[in-house]
Amino acid sequence: MPCPDHPSLATIDILTVLRALADPMRLAVVRQLHEQGEATCAELLRNRPKSSMSHHFHVLRDSGILHTRVEGLHHYNSLRRQELDQYFPGLMTSILLTTKES
Amino acid sequence: MPCPDHPSLATIDILTVLRALADPMRLAVVRQLHEQGEATCAELLRNRPKSSMSHHFHVLRDSGILHTRVEGLHHYNSLRRQELDQYFPGLMTSILLTTKES
C-alpha cells in the first residue's frame, strides 16, 4: 500500500489551514490526535461514516495538518505539529488549548 | 439607524470563529481592521461587491469578531480583539502575525 502524498508546509497558506480546521468532524479528529499522539483510521472512525471520514482525512492531509504512515494494512495518523508550529506559530496551540469547546 | 446586535463571546465556540475566518474576503477585512484599527464599511468595501460584503460583515459580526458602531449615517467597524484574546487566547495573534499570507 503506497504512502499518501504530503504537501510541504511551505506551499500551504493560513486560509487553507483555517478551512481544514473549520469543520466539526475534522476538528474532532485533530483533537483526538493531539491527545492520542498517533491513531489508526479505524480508531479515528468511531461511529462516524467511513465515506465522509475518508474525505476529511484527505482534506486534513492536503492542508498539511495530518501525516499518515502506512505499515502493513494499517494507516497510522498523526498531527504535523512541529511543522505547523514552525509555519503558523501559536495557531494549533490556541485552537487545541482553548477552553471553549465546540 | 439602530446599532447592530453583537453576541456575547461567551456564547461563541471556536468552530464558529474558525468558519468566519476561513474565507479570503473576511480574512482580508480582519487584516485591514487589524492594521487600521477602525474603518467604515465604505473603506472596507474597496472594489468588492457590496452585496457579498454585507453578508461577510454579518458573518464576522455574528461570530463575535467584528464590532460595528453607528454614528450618523456611518458604520464604524473594529475587531473585538480584547474579548477574542480573552476567550481564544493567541488565536488572532497567530492568524494576524503569520508570515504566510493567503
TrEMBL record, chains A, B:
Domain of life of the organism encoding this protein: Bacteria
Alphabetical list of Pfam families matching this protein: HTH_20
Ranges of residues in domain HTH arsR-type: 6-102
InterPro entries according to UniProt: ArsR-like_HTH, HTH_ArsR_DNA-bd_dom, WH-like_DNA-bd_sf, WH_DNA-bd_sf
Gene3D superfamilies to which the protein is assigned, alphabetical: Winged helix-like DNA-binding domain superfamily/Winged helix DNA-binding domain
UniProt protein name: ArsR family transcriptional regulator
